[in-house]
Design brief:
This protein is mostly helical. The chain has one domain. It has 3 helices and no strands. Helix 1 packs antiparallel against helix 2 and helix 2 runs antiparallel to helix 3. The chain is elongated and about 45 Å long. The N and C termini lie far apart (37 Å). The model has no long low-confidence stretch (mean pLDDT 92).
């Protein structure tokens, strides 16, 4: 599933941007938006294809929860330096 690989790569990019002392918050927010969109697309695909395994479904749910948490932290200002 190439979409999952892309999503995980975007997560890695996001964590690097946010983890840098001089990280670009605009870029971080853009990456987080891409992550949220990718999760929505994956959830749509999963809903359309019930034969996809429960492991992938569980991983997508965990990524969705993580993205929601990051979005909350971002909006709360946790990453302001």
């Amino acid at each position: 599933m190439g979409k999952v690989d892309t999503l995980l790569s975007t997560w890695e990019d996001y964590s690097q941007v946010i983890g840098m002392a001089d990280g670009n918050l605009r870029q971080g927010f853009q990456l987080l938006t891409e992550i949220r969109q990718g999760i929505l697309e994956l959830k749509t695909r999963l809903a359309e294809n019930p034969t996809i395994g429960s492991e992938i479904r569980a991983m997508v749910e965990e990524l969705d929860i993580l993205a929601a948490t990051e979005e909350f932290k971002f909006n709360r200002g946790d990453y302001l330096h």
